[in-house]
Design brief:
Helix content: 40-55%
Oligomer: single chain
Largest sheet: 5 strands, antiparallel
Structural class: alpha+beta
Radius of gyration: 45 Å
Distance between the termini: 155 Å
């Protein structure tokens, strides 16, 4: 679906390089070249859904009196493949191309995962993987809606592509697009002017993939719906976009999307499971159909042989009516064969049918994931490494098909990164952790504020002030934006895909080994040495685990630093109190000593005074003349 900013951008001066008639011929070439394969693809889907016996075969079985039964081994095989695809967790990861972008790789990785979550890609992945295996081709369209990137799955029945393309990823296709059946009122609301100029065309083109005549693909006046083709095509080395119906053009304009080198880029990404020499694309079911038909025929024939036995006449004089009775009774488990007839055992026929049945089942099982891949043969005490070896051995024949789907996912993430670099210019706060108890957020394109020099103006005249010393315009400083932090447009990255298989036993064994090693070497989970071991392990989501451990270690260090600081402050306060107490004791001791000294001095002075008085008195007495002289 087109968005407003794309419809109104540069359309006044744009000249469509390819006219409507040629665009119609391009689409018609696709219809003519892929119609017979489309019939075969519908049959592939029928076999998955359980519709495996045609009307002609049913009529023939009814004539023979043979039961029409089937054992759907196709759905179990495809379901096993889908289980492998769904169990593999895939996430984008950014790798820096230049050293200066090394610190920003983690920011780009988290941004891409945020964009994928916002576009609900994991849900769309389940839809595309199913069509990839069953119908054989799947595609998505990426669009910038003005605030985020939308990912829209394209149904196989609505995908239009260059029929001469022979690459699995459609990289050599000259046009790709969507031919979607839409309500006429919806089309008129989106393209009011163009739709009215075309005379309000109506029709129902859903019959192309249901009607072998192909005559009603473009229109059918019985219903008010019309097929709208939204086509990206390359002309002159540039991609262009055109939206049209059979009656004429609704919209045309250049493709605005650019890759990281600035080259025009098609936002439709597609992939096929397998391609024939003539360009027909098909899924994993196509080669299973002959074996499934043979399996159904063998089952039906064996059941018929069990329920019916041949009889022969042993007495030529037996009554003629006994022939019909003998055939009827021979088909019963407890039937009584009349006189003159006997049942003929036919073990060779049943044995032959059983051998063919077993060969067909083995061949079908070979096309499906092996029990080792699905984890159905693992012993209870089997190690994770042993299970992984078995899974890898059984995964070999499916690896190429799964690898092409992984490349398809990678192309989606890379296109998403190019669109994000092109359009994400405003500040955006994204959530970077999945833990609801400890959410963390990151701001991309964050403005950096600081002092900015601006010309000084005369408030009265509005003219710039001149510095009298330099003769140059005077400047003043005010707070303003001086840069942008985490700006996506400046980050040069390679986007890769991290795919982790679902091997729970291996994960548990690896984790136990890590803990045992860490315990024996007395390594803390919060130490860099343990993080290095975790980084080298094969555990999934190890980066998120390491980030959580680092965050917990930082919090513990901050908490410990706070506790240490508090303890130091308390110890310092205690030392100060003790010092003050000791000083008070010392001061008291000094005061007591001084008091004692003063008292002692006072006593000594008193004694000395007494002695001095006594001495003076004695001396005075000695100096007086004695009486009688």
């Amino acid at each position: 679906m087109l968005v407003a900013h794309q419809i109104n951008t540069g359309m006044e001066d744009y000249k469509n390089p390819v006219d409507h008639a040629r665009l119609r011929k391009m689409v018609q070439s696709f219809i003519d070249a892929t119609h017979s394969n489309a019939v075969a693809v519908r049959k592939d889907r029928d076999y998955f859904d359980g519709n495996q016996i045609s009307a002609a075969v049913l009529n023939e079985l009814d004539k023979r009196g043979q039961p029409a039964i089937f054992t759907n081994r196709v759905v179990s095989a495809i379901s096993g493949m889908l289980g492998i695809l769904d169990s593999g967790a895939s996430d984008p990861e950014a790798m820096p191309r230049v050293p200066r972008a090394a610190d920003a790789a983690d920011i780009v990785t988290k941004t891409l995962r945020y964009l994928a979550d916002r576009a609900n890609y994991k849900k769309h992945r389940k839809t595309t993987s199913k069509e990839y295996l069953i119908e054989g081709s799947t595609a998505v369209s990426l669009e910038w809606n003005g605030t985020a990137i939308d990912i829209t799955p394209i149904r196989w029945s609505e995908l239009v592509y260059d029929p001469f393309s022979v690459e699995y990823d459609f990289s050599d296709s000259t046009f790709l697009g969507i031919a979607k059946l839409r309500d006429c009122a919806e089309v008129e609301a989106e393209f009011p002017d163009s739709y009215v100029e075309l005379g309000r065309p109506e029709g129902d083109m859903s019959a192309f993939f249901e009607d072998d005549s192909k005559k009603t693909w473009w229109s059918d006046p019985l219903r008010r719906r019309v097929r709208v083709v939204d086509l990206y095509y390359i002309h002159g080395g540039e991609w262009h976009r055109a939206v049209f119906v059979e009656a004429g053009m609704l919209y045309s304009g250049p493709c605005e999307y650019r890759d990281d080198l600035g080259v025009s880029m098609c936002p439709v990404k597609a992939v096929s499971f397998e391609i024939m020499r003539n360009g027909d694309r098909f899924g994993a079911i196509r080669n299973m159909i002959p074996l499934q038909d043979s399996l159904n025929a063998r089952n039906s024939r064996l059941l018929h042989l069990v329920n019916h036995r041949q009889v022969r006449q042993t007495d030529q004089y037996a009554p003629p009516e006994n022939k019909a009775i003998a055939k009827r009774e021979a088909s019963k488990a407890d039937g009584t064969i009349p006189f003159g007839w006997e049942a003929i055992p036919a073990p060779d026929m049943a044995q032959g049918q059983m051998m063919i049945l077993q060969n067909d089942m083995a061949a079908l099982d070979r096309m499906a994931p092996t029990p080792a891949v699905l984890g159905q043969v693992a012993a209870a005490n089997q190690s994770g490494r042993a299970r992984q070896i078995l899974q890898q051995a059984g995964y070999t024949e499916l690896a190429r098909g799964f690898g092409r789907f992984e490349d398809f996912e990678l192309s989606i993430y890379r296109a998403m990164w190019c669109i994000a670099r092109q359009y994400f210019s405003q500040p955006e706060v994204i959530r970077i952790t999945d833990d609801p108890r400890a959410p963390e957020f990151l701001t991309i394109n964050e403005p950096v504020m600081g002092p900015v020099a601006v010309p000084a103006m005369n408030q009265a005249t509005g003219e710039p002030l001149i510095d009298p010393y330099t003769g140059q315009p005077a400047t003043t400083f005010s707070m303003g934006q001086v840069g942008v932090k985490n700006r996506l447009a400046e980050l040069d990255m390679d986007v890769t895909l991290v795919t982790v298989p679902d091997t729970a036993t291996l994960e548990q064994e690896t984790f136990s080994t890590l803990l045992e090693y860490a315990s024996s070497n007395r390594l803390s989970p919060f130490s860099p040495e343990f993080w290095a071991l975790l980084e080298m392990s094969t555990l999934p989501n190890k980066r998120a685990t390491i980030e959580k451990l680092q965050r917990l270690a930082t919090e513990a260090q901050q908490r410990q630093a706070g506790e240490t600081q508090a303890a130091q402050e308390m110890a310092q306060q205690r030392n100060e109190v003790e010092m003050q107490s000791e000083q008070a004791k010392a001061a008291k001791a000094i005061a007591d000593a001084r008091k004692t000294t003063a008292e002692t001095d006072a006593l000594l002075d008193a004694e000395d005074a007494k002695k001095l008085i006594a001495f003076n008195a004695l001396m005075s007495a000695q100096q007086q003349p004695h009486a009688g002289f």
